[in-house]
Write a structure and sequence with these properties.
The chain contains six helices and eleven strands. By secondary structure, it is an alpha/beta fold. The chain has one domain: Spore Coat Polysaccharide Biosynthesis Protein SpsA, Chain A, CATH 3.90.550. It starts with 8 loop residues before the first strand and ends with a helix.
Length: about 240
């Protein structure tokens, strides 16, 4: 393996066509362009050379993305694009497809198709970190910090405080971190051996709740448009 894949870093975007809550979610229009294009645009502005691989089962998504430079389409079989299919299985398929034509690099990135506010600054930060990451670290994941007081539901239907000894004052609680799925950097050999992200030894990269916005519901699109409008007027 080499750190660079033909002098570029592979970045995989998983984009299946079968979204239920928002039909055709990955190519629904947000701020005048398909949702997935926001992620692609942010990646292509990165300082280091990258190559994007779109893993999709949907011809419309493939066609929407095919005109971008430094981008290849990985045709995902329907068996890896159902509601019950795992992201890890789709990633393994993508890596196998990539390895047919080029050697795999030490690291690859997984970027969400549904995080339209993920910034090039964050992508650059991760890319520039990779050569200096300790050898025992296998994953960098973006997370969102919280000091919320979290409760779970017990078998009898009553609430149970997850951290019963935590202070009631928010400012005195230890930080917790929410996996937001916006971006992962994965050590290739470790991921293939695992092959589950949650089994890898991971370090966090904290990003804001605004940047980590994940589009799952129609209301998320309205919030994303509001935040994009706000961002454009502040420039």
């Amino acid at each position: 393996m080499t750190f660079f894949n033909k002098e570029s870093i592979p970045i995989i975007i998983l984009a299946r066509g079968g979204s239920k809550r928002i039909p055709r979610k990955n190519i629904c229009v947000l701020d005048g362009k398909p949702l997935i294009h926001h992620s692609i645009d942010a990646i292509l502005k990165a300082t280091l050379p990258v190559h994007i691989y779109i893993s999709t089962d949907c011809p419309n998504i493939a066609q929407s993305c095919s005109s971008f430079p430094s981008l290849s389409i990985v045709s995902r079989p329907p068996s890896l694009a159902s509601d019950s299919s795992s992201s890890e299985d789709a990633l393994l398929h993508a890596l196998k497809s990539i390895s047919v034509n080029s050697s795999l690099s030490d690291w690859f990135l997984l970027v969400s198709a549904c995080s339209p506010l993920l910034s090039t600054t964050t992508i650059d930060q991760v890319l520039l970190m990779l050569p200096t990451i300790p050898i025992d670290i296998e994953c960098i994941m973006t997370v969102t910090e919280t000091r919320e007081d979290l409760w779970s539901l017990s078998s009898d239907g009553t609430l149970v405080r997850l951290f019963p000894n935590a202070p009631r004052q928010q400012q005195l609680r230890s930080s917790l971190f929410i996996e937001n799925s916006a971006l992962y950097a994965l050590r290739t050999k470790a991921f293939i051996a695992a092959p589950y992200i949650h089994k890898l030894k991971s370090m966090p990269l904290v990003i804001s709740s605004e940047e980590s916005l994940d589009i799952n519901e129609p209301s998320d699109l309205h919030l994303a448009q509001f935040l994009l409008n706000k961002r454009s007027t502040s420039i």
